[in-house]
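Throughout our pipeline, every protein is held as a single compact record rather than as scattered files. The record that follows is passed on verbatim for readers who wish to inspect the format:
___
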Amino acid sequence: MKKQLILSLSIFWIALGPLLLGSCSKDKDDNANDSPFQLEENLIMGNKLFNSSLDDRNSKNSFEILKIERKNEILQVSIKGSDSVGSFKFIWDGRIQESYPMGIQLIMLYQGKDEDFIPTEEKVIQVNLQKIIGKRTNVNEYHFNIINGSKKKTATLNPDGTITNNDR
């Protein structure tokens, strides 16, 4: 009886051990986007940078997202409020929502000089979507949430080409 109890407890702990150890391990992807990484001139991937930019959306250089279009693998964002060179960056958190509806979030930030900002200046800022999606699938199947980095507004380009605006 005593041997059977010890054997049962031993089997229990042997079976439970890997489960407990596995639940304590950290996912590799958790730290993958902690340090910002420049994917191209105006596209940065960084989870912490994305989250801090999301929290700091209040700028005296406020711009409006007028229109978003997909042209092949290029996302074109028309804005009002810029400077002569269009000093904007997109920050991506490194995540892709692959369940339906598939989606990607980008924060768009003005990074130019305060004295160069012209509230009436209109620009079209482009970003290469293949740098984000890679070879996964067709870019036309994704929702692209463009979060305004100067105020709490988000414009979403839907797969059918329509745009939805939200105050968030």
The longest helix spans residues 2-24.
